[in-house]
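Q: I have 229 residues here and want to know how they pack in 3D. Can you give me a structure?
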Amino acid sequence: MDLGLKNKVALVTGAGSQKGFGKSIALALAKEGCDVIVADADLKGAKQTAAEIEALGHNAIALKANISNSEEVNNMVKAGLDKFGRIDILVNNVGSARMSSCTEATEEDWRANIDVTLKGAWYCCQAVLPQMLERQSGNIICLSSTPAVRGLSQASLYSAANTGVIGMVKALAPEVGFKGINVNVIMVPGMNDVDSNAPEQQDIANVVVFLVSNAASDLTSQTMLTGAW
């Protein structure tokens, strides 16, 4: 099946980690024909992922960005647009998991969860959307986590941030849907500090590929649950 991803340009945040979901997602999109903007706070890791994409015969650029900083996000997106001319797909993959009990949590714990997981995703959407709206085409995927709906001890802030991501997507989808842009959430099973070759990594990457493909052109505002939870 032709998924319609050949020559599309994808921006995947958090794709520099050699253990997390981001790398698997970036490689899966490249294998379907996408050029990829690999963004991460770890530039060395981003370059490693970009090199693997180029080895598959596709273009890639590695960019350093702290997504909790709006200026860095804007610069990242500008650099990606300068390189490729457009961004067809945004995958918000970065999240923070600062765990603490409610009574012991600090303002720093709050900021660590909200600024990265929620504000970071919002900054990326805000930066990428103008050119998607102009072209009336695009796909945005935000990763959340299952504690957003089932709860997890010592994780009230983590759960709140991930629930916020779902709410953001639910509001954003109808806001931009009439312009041909789909926005969906994939809920991953908790922490992702696992081997990048583990089955759950590829499963999540496959869900991303499906949701941004022609096969899911009518799906938006969806919350997809993955893994055992």
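Q: Anything worth noting?
A: Residues 103 and 154 are 10 Å apart (CA to CA). The chain has seven helices and seven strands.
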